[in-house]
Design goal:
single chain, alpha/beta, FAD/NAD(P)-binding domain, 5-stranded parallel β-sheet, 12 helices, 27 strands
Length: 451
């Protein structure tokens, strides 16, 4: 790879590089856009920001990916001190204040690592190869295509056992994402399955929600856990608690109980691990591969390198001595405060320590049903569902996204029949003969089917 060195430090302005345009990175960039005294470069492997809490609705064909994503360059069009650089982090070279990406090298005065976490497969190679994660837009669209393709395959199959295997769905992980996925998939099965596939004369397939712990929604209150289990069970989901998925071989999910489930679909939402950053000393990497930081989010041992969001481990907050939960609100609050602190630092004022303000947590379970934990109490049902809708519209970047998403939700919930069940994927590659330049292979056919 030919390295292209870019010197972004000009006019004596300090350069801040933010690696990662997720929730924490965007809050940080938003704060830093309030000053013209700092040059900000956002580095991300994608050219768009997206809202992770709603990925599962993309994966279940309930909303479009464009409803929860927006191009960085469009976001920053009117932010004069912020620019975007597309590339994947390869390593950090702290001794020369250099960030090396697969697109070139950048110089920084301050570096902020906000790359979040990735799926933790706990080293199981079969699960890595064959299970379906859900941490990105690509993952969500891949899962949507996979489920729809298996339904089409099942509709053509003449074997009852094969049909069942193709439409069985196993979700490993009983946290908010697993519960929300199970609820949405159950709604699809109950309201859409027989409409789209009338040839299924008997009910086929089960949805299994498997959790290693004794209750669903582990971080939430006991009331929320019980309510979630009750509603999910009523929807027809089979819940297996205190059970581990130990392997996935030959389209069989192997369980710690010694049992197995025949399925062509294992959805893995069982844990996350911090993204790796080459170049940092091993001493600063803590539990879950999270980067250890002080109360002002400095990476331990560095004055000009910071880490925020899911990627960092901060144990200085007295209320969270084992580190903060890897939640959206933590990431957003850390990003906002760090932005304010960097401006204070530039102005010669002291930085403030981070203290997480817990606004509560919530999870949608099914149509018109959600659970909400607030610092002063718990509530569920239709009101909780409305609160969930409202809270999840607010963080979206553009007004267009907010309005489109609100309309999509309204129409889909009213009709019980969203129209986004599209299979869109590269179909065939053709090699181009002769010297056609740098791209000798083109994807020229796409298959799009509306069920």
């Amino acid at each position: 790879m030919q390295q292209q060195c870019a010197d972004l430090n000009h006019n004596n302005m300090k350069t801040i590089i933010i690696v990662g345009g997720g929730l924490s990175g965007m809050e940080l960039a938003k704060e830093l856009s309030r000053t013209r005294d700092l040059k900000v470069v956002l580095v991300d492997k994608n050219n768009y920001n997206f809202f992770p809490p709603l990925l599962y609705q993309v994966s279940t064909a309930f909303i479009e990916a464009s409803n929860i994503s927006y191009p960085f360059r469009r976001i920053f069009q009117e932010r004069e001190n912020i620019s975007f650089y597309m590339g994947s982090l390869l390593r950090v070279e702290p001794e020369t204040n250099t960030l090396v990406t697969d697109s070139g090298s950048l110089q920084y005065d301050y570096l902020v690592l906000a790359m979040g976490a990735e799926t933790n497969f706990f080293g199981n190679q079969n699960i890595i190869r064959n299970a379906l994660p859900m941490k990105s837009i690509d993952d969500a669209l891949n899962l949507r295509n996979h489920i729809l393709l298996k339904l089409e395959e099942a509709s053509r199959s003449t074997s009852l056992l094969n049909k069942s295997k193709l439409v069985n769905l196993v979700i490993a992980g009983g946290g908010p994402t697993g519960v929300e996925l199970a609820g949405m998939l159950a709604e699809m099965k109950n309201h859409i399955g027989t409409k789209d596939y009338p040839q299924f004369t008997t009910e086929l397939g089960q949805i299994y929600l498997i959790n290693s712990g004794p209750a669903l929604l582990g971080p939430m209150s006991t009331k929320a856990q019980k309510e979630a289990q009750k509603i999910i069970s009523k929807l027809g989901v089979t819940i297996l608690l205190n059970t581990l998925v130990t392997d996935y071989v030959n389209e069989k999910v192997m369980l710690s109980t010694g049992e197995s489930i025949a399925t062509a679909t294992l959805i893995w939402v069982s844990g996350v691990i911090g993204r790796e950053v080459e170049g940092l000393p091993k001493e600063v990497i803590g539990r879950g591969r999270r980067i250890m930081v002080d109360e002002k989010n400095h990476v331990q041992g560095f004055e000009n390198i910071f880490a925020i969001g899911d990627q960092c481990l901060q144990v200085s907050d007295a209320k969270f001595p084992n580190g903060h939960p890897q939640l959206a609100q933590v990431a957003m609050q850390q990003g906002k405060l760090l932005g304010q602190n960097l401006i204070r630092l530039q102005q010669g004022r002291p930085a403030k320590p981070f203290r997480y303000f817990d606004k509560g947590s919530m999870a949608i379970i099914s149509k018109y049903k959600a659970v909400v934990d607030l610092p002063r109490g718990f509530f569920s049902g239709f009101i909780a569902w409305l609160v969930w809708l409202f809270i999840h519209i607010i963080p979206l970047i553009s007004f267009r996204n907010k309005s489109r998403l609100a309309f999509t939700w309204f129409w889909s919930f009213v009709t019980n029949n969203p129209t986004l069940r599209l299979i869109i994927r590269p179909e065939k590659k053709y090699e181009v003969e002769g010297n056609q330049g740098p791209n000798d292979e083109y994807d020229i056919h796409f298959s799009m089917g509306k069920l």
